[in-house]
Amino acid sequence: MASSGICSPVPQKVFDYIHGFCASQAIFTACELGIFDVVETPQPSQKIAEQISGDHDAVCRLLDALVSLELLVKHGDNPDEALYSNSSMGDCFRKSSPTYMYGYVMHVMKTNKPLTGNLTSAIREGQSQWQRTFNATSNDLFKNNYSSKEKLIHFQEGMRGSVKSATSIFATAFDLSRFPRLCDVGGGTGDVAYAMCMAYPNMKITVFDLPNVVEVSSHFKPPLKECPNQENVTFVGGDFFKPSLPPSDLYVLTHILHDWGPAECDAILDNVFNHLPSGGGVLLGERLIYDDRNGPMTPVYWSLIMRCISDGRESSGLDYKRLLEKHGFKDVQVKYTHSNLLDAVLAIKP
């Protein structure tokens, strides 16, 4: 039969995927310009443009894009008189939002986005792309981030956005009340530790991280009314690759293993296992891929991005079960929290 010559319509999802970069770029630009802070209360477009020193027509186009992404709400049908304000999602991007997404967005914009611009090279070479992207090694850039208290605080503000809003869900993914002592290895700002402190008031908690990270930890300390028993949290400086972890009944590793290749992951888990008493445990916080590796979208994307960043990857619950059992752990439990940030894996030392 002869073809009619009529092509079936291209599904809308195809165009959504092709133009997906426009959505993230609109968010990056809005955060960089401070739009989500300006429209904390409803504002007309002309006033928004004035406050961010932007061209009015261009600002209107950005505002309309943010409305289409459901990040802003447009009040009124007349474009010349409409007011714009944050939606509940858009409110996450205010600089003062308790989700700390602003710092995370700025980190992704300045670091991860340029790196993934070289994804084709990463796929061909199987190597990270720091040198090609920034003409520097990852060690050079991280040394710069740690070179002063101000830079380190800025860097940590970016990192905490990838865990902060999920810490309460993560802390209660399993009942951890049987563990009197907890050590958050590489715990940075202490957000996970303070969430554990709230969930388990009698637990004694140590945050273990590099000494210069510990030096700036007071900057991230929550208000007393937010975490009344925060005296149960202490910070200790050290290196989790060295055989000297603080004593604990439960070691927590959040977004640690996904940064490293197999040899480093083995060294970290050997160190944790050797420091645990019988009956002690390890709790992993990672973005988990499904065992069939077909989703969820966020960790699958992140595993792809990690190829540009390091020798690490996002893994499935089954992957971590096998890894933990290889290191002698038993009774491995996996919990998908559906938070897009921190799923949980708990394992016990016999």
From TrEMBL:
Every O-methyltransferase dimerisation domain range: 16-95
Active site: H258
GO terms of molecular function: acetylserotonin O-methyltransferase activity; protein dimerization activity
UniProt keyword list: Methyltransferase, S-adenosyl-L-methionine, Transferase
Record carries keyword Cytoplasm: no
EC annotation from Swiss-Prot or TrEMBL: 2.1.1.4
Domain O-methyltransferase C-terminal: 118-330
Gene Ontology biological process: methylation
Subunit record text: Homodimer.
Role noted for this protein: Catalyzes the transfer of a methyl group onto N-acetylserotonin, producing melatonin (N-acetyl-5-methoxytryptamine).
Name assigned to this protein: Acetylserotonin O-methyltransferase
